[in-house]
Amino acid sequence: MSATGGERARSKGGSGSGARDRSTEPAVELPVARVLVDVSPHHLDRPFDYLVPSRFDADAVPGCRVRVRFNGRLLDGFLLERVAESDYAGRLAWLQRVVSSEPVLVGELLELVRAVARRYAGTLNDVARLAVPPRHARVENEAVAARPSESPPPPDCAAWSRYGHGAAFLRAVREGKPARAVWQSLPDEDWSNRLAELAAAAASERRSAILVVPDHRDLARLTKSCAALLGDRRVVSLSSGLGQAERYRRWLAVRRGDVRIVVGTRAAMFAPVVPPLGLVVVWDDGDDQHLYPTAPYPHVRDVLTHRAHSAGAALLIGGLARTAEAEMLVESGWAGEIVAGRTEVRSAAPRVTAIGEDDAQLARDPTIRSARLPSIAFQAARQALRDGTPVLVQVPRRGYMPALGCARCGERATCRKCAGPLAVPVGTGDTARPPSCRWCGAIEHAFRCVNCGTDRMRAIVIGAARTAEELGKAFGGVTVRTSGGNEVLDRVPEAPALVVATPGVEPVAAGGYGAALLLDARAMLSRPELRAGEQALRRWFAAATLVRPSDSGGRVVVLAESELPPVQALVRWDPSWYAARELAGRAELGYPPAKRVASVDGSPEAVNELLDGVELPGSGEILGPVPLGEVDAEGESERERALLRVDRAHGRLLADALYEAQVRRGRGGSGPVRVQLDPLEPI
């Protein structure tokens, strides 16, 4: 039921504007505007009715930006619709201003915003802020460039023929069929060209396409491939990193139908493309950058899955690895899979070696399980350098010694002042310098383990800076390059060199690396996270694809035991096997995606207050609350977290229950709470 902002304006002394409004005549037709006012609380998440003055009749169109008085303040809003009369019995306030007559929140975009808000128990305003960029007045008045009049020719499907059902999926996109698939890219594949071919298939029949990648490096690569195949005027790149004017200019070009092919980072999942939507793609859906870090925390994969389903468009979830969520779509039959045969995989992949694969390795090198760089890694690196090729060294963390622990028992070394982690400062290169706290900066001169009392420390994880220093000593005369932090390399030449990089910023080597060393693999797998194995495998695949195929001498050495499931998946180059195993394990334990989970964070009082107001479905259960480690001066927990878990079939009911609980809290709550459905790390 709609409400009015005028009632609140009068209660706060808005009589001055009311006096001016009495002489204003309402519009003759559809004089009532329903406005989404820019307010955040859940109990105000509904449209409010305002009268449209006759002078705004032509400009006050559904979807436009307006200004209204609400609770005594002049606020922004979106005009959602106009109706003949209001169901509010009192006097309505007047629309104060039409900021722009450009309809920016209307039609399919408005329905998408509503659907995302409901899925994540958020408000329309929270999602609208993500979907509609800030206005730039000058851009709206710029002349519009002429759009291409002819459709591009359909692409060749020869490259997709390497995969089972690949060519058929490309034809389905061209014919406008709602095909859905999970694509496992081959290690030597130019994935950006393949995605550009899918976009061209949609564009050849004048259908729109949205392709979303995790970061700016992937975006630059995909944009270049699409522009080369379709031309610059048919493709637009959207990302939050653009300036306000340029971002709004490109967004308007999409909304007005000047461009039909949109590539971008997570901001592009809301791109207001002109129907019909023919294709949506998410590349590397396991990357955590696909999750919006602001409320209501939507994930690109889930939003694009909804868009494909509601618009009858084709959907492709592609990557080098496979997430448990993507595997669930395959196992449920909702999506097919596009994978290559084992012969193709073996010919395209490098040779992968894990430590302890056979007894001969252990006999030659008894320290192989404990050494950070055992002999098999040295041999692979030396051979690649002798062949005149660079060697990639992947290190999980940047810095020098980013994590320290007790030398006797392994307990993490923490600050006596704030309990933060101790580390050797980044880039000091001075092993004699005492460690300092990464949280408060206090220097620790007299460490003593809280567990066993010893005064000696050792590095739990060695950072990229320390690794580069060690390798420089071990391989005298060889160039050592680093990529990570503020110094990211895009490419390295085809010459002998050691390239130390953190995951996600590995530079491309001309002709491919001769070898890759995946260091501290056991540390990556032992992280206390639900997705530790999945994330480690995804990062290993990303690094291994930069290495030459095995028939060209390419070799990957992963420093973890070969019997570990993620290591086995890498050695066999079989991400779908690991994803199926991971999904089965989570289903047995009741973890996502087999169950729908929500996390509730806040003060103990606020969390308990919200939990008391949640009416869960029959399959629901509450885990916790548990303290998050932050304590006040009295030693009491300042923040707690509770998990709410239901069967996946009841996921919508869980979202609705959390939404209603937040509405009931209203303004009288004991503090803010952070509600997140489908968090990446619920534990």
Which helices and strands, and how do they pair?
Elements: E1 3-4, H1 6-11, H2 15-21, E2 32-37, E3 48-51, E4 65-70, E5 73-83, E6 95-100, H3 107-119, H4 124-131, H5 137-140, H6 166-174, E7 180-184, H7 191-203, E8 208-212, H8 216-230, E9 235-238, H9 244-255, E10 261-264, E11 277-283, H10 300-311, E12 314-319, H11 324-331, E13 336-338, H12 342-348, E14 351-355, H13 359-364, H14 375-386, E15 391-394, E16 403-406, E17 422-423, E18 436-437, E19 457-461, H15 464-474, E20 480-483, E21 491-492, E22 498-501, E23 508-509, E24 515-518, H16 521-525, H17 532-544, E25 555-561, H18 565-572, H19 575-589, E26 595-602, H20 604-612, E27 621-627, E28 640-647, H21 651-665, E29 673-677
Parallel strand pairs: 1-3, 7-12, 7-13, 8-10, 8-11, 9-10, 11-12, 14-25, 15-22, 15-24, 20-22, 21-23, 24-25
Antiparallel strand pairs: 2-3, 2-5, 4-5, 4-6, 16-19, 17-18, 26-28, 26-29, 27-28
GO molecular function: 3'-5' DNA helicase activity; ATP binding; DNA binding; zinc ion binding
Subunit structure: Component of the replication restart primosome.
Binding site for Zn(2+) 2: 415, 418, 437, 440
